[in-house]
From TrEMBL:
It comes from Roseibium limicola. This is Probable branched-chain-amino-acid aminotransferase. Keywords: Amino-acid biosynthesis, Aminotransferase, Branched-chain amino acid biosynthesis, Pyridoxal phosphate, Transferase. Pfam families: Aminotran_4. It catalyses: L-leucine + 2-oxoglutarate = 4-methyl-2-oxopentanoate + L-glutamate; L-valine + 2-oxoglutarate = 3-methyl-2-oxobutanoate + L-glutamate; L-isoleucine + 2-oxoglutarate = (S)-3-methyl-2-oxopentanoate + L-glutamate. GO terms for biological process: branched-chain amino acid biosynthetic process. Pathway: Amino-acid biosynthesis; L-valine biosynthesis; L-valine from pyruvate: step 4/4; Amino-acid biosynthesis; L-leucine biosynthesis; L-leucine from 3-methyl-2-oxobutanoate: step 4/4; Amino-acid biosynthesis; L-isoleucine biosynthesis; L-isoleucine from 2-oxobutanoate: step 4/4. Belongs to the class-IV pyridoxal-phosphate-dependent aminotransferase family. PANTHER family: AMINO-ACID AMINOTRANSFERASE (PTHR42743), AMINODEOXYCHORISMATE LYASE (PTHR42743:SF11). One of its GO terms (molecular function) is branched-chain-amino-acid transaminase activity. Acts on leucine, isoleucine and valine. Its EC number is 2.6.1.42.
Amino acid sequence: SGWSETWTWIDGAWQGGNPAIAGPRTHAFWQGSSVFDGARFFDGVMPDLDLHCQRFNNSAQALYLKPIMREGEILELCAEGVKKFSSDKQLYIKPMYWAEEDGPGVISCDPESTRFALCLFEAPMAGDDVSMSVTLSPFRRPSIETMPVNAKAGCLYPNGARAVREAKARGFDNAVMLDTLGNVAELTAANIFLVKDGEVHTPVPNGTFLNGITRQRMIQLLRVAGITVYERTVAYAELKAADELFSTGNYNKVVPLNRIEERTMEIGPVSRKARELYFEYAHK
Ligand code: PMP
């Protein structure tokens, strides 16, 4: 198959490739009762893996799944899993919970049927030279009353997926998604930061976007480095008028933006600094 090298711990053993783990009755496959998290291994480090494991178990609770693994157990399995690969590989680390059986009302799951798998696969990360273009998505983020947006749940992703497709069809790499009130929320699977006059601004978590672990780490690192960071309501027009834009997410950590709509922009000093600060932190 076309899958990169993959190892999955399930039911007490490691399996290579893409083993079949769902059937036609699997609740998650049918009704979307699945959560996951995404962390990274590179250069021998797995930055903030403990926070990813915590969020993973919180996501389970938000979806009424049963977090059947303790954080420490998942951390140990991650350490074991990365050894399946040659140490120079860059890996995506994906713990998953899903429900096997139906619960009350059928659309809800039976939490007692929660299953766990830890999947690791080879996935190269963007280098220092990578940047991307964005446009405004016609699709918006749901609010906390409509979806459990602070959980990393599979059921939340089709909305972002259609935003990416729509943006790509218009020649952009990614899209800015607004919240239901029309303020900037995030990119389709990463958080967004703008730089104006040497200061950094990013949307304040308001229950419409994932308050990313990389986002929170980035804010802390920038502040320690003496750079002012405001968490506040951000309008789309401000992104278009920014000196620099960059995004954060576990997958590629920090990626500068090179274009918003028709306006191109250079990768600026604060975006470079943000990327440097993150990797300096990661390698410590
Ligand atoms: N928003 C969404 C919707 C995401 O899927 C992700 C990736 N997990 C992020 C933001 C960035 O979060 P993190 O830094 O925790 O990866």
